[in-house]
Amino acid sequence: MTTIPKCVFKTRVPNNPEASWQERKGWNWKDISADDYFANKRVIVFSLPGAFTPTCTEKQLPGFEDNYDEIRNLGIDEIYCISVNDSFVMNAWAKREEIENVKVIADGNGEFTRMMGMLVDKHHLGFGQRSWRYAMIVDNGNVEKMWVEPGINNAGEDMDPYGETTPENVIEYLKRT
Known about the structure:
With 177 residues, this protein is of the alpha/beta class. It has helices at 34-38, 54-66, 68-72, 87-96, 111-115, 167-176; strands at residues 8-14, 27-33, 42-48, 78-83, 103-106, 119-121, 129-131, 134-139, 142-148. The strands form three sheets. The protein has a five-stranded mixed sheet with strand order 5-4-3-8-9. A two-stranded antiparallel ribbon has the order 1-2.
């Protein structure tokens, strides 16, 4: 069983996290460890190439947000969206999309993504290093199940597959287990 990499995420957290996005005032830097996110919990993590990009914004993020309650009722404690973007971008994206349930995680330097073996070269698109699209169930820091879109490391192509990592596939798996 694969263990989640031990790393620290540089995050911006609101002073009043229980407030809606529009009411949050004042933000501070906070280091959050992988253990803070993954220890003693069963969570879903889905990773995508970038905040504000079409497939990520129109399908994947809202799909997990819309299915949040059903997923939680299937034994999941949290749902995390991770991307190789900085915390300012991830928070702005979640705010714009009015995401209240899925938690966004900024992997600004791509450290977690690299250690997961999912960092890919998207220089041909002007993206630099980004995450390949994947989703996984993590149980107490261990990968229980992982879905990876086909064609990983497709530098030079502009393909962005989305089929394996849908919330529907994750839900189907959770219903069987």
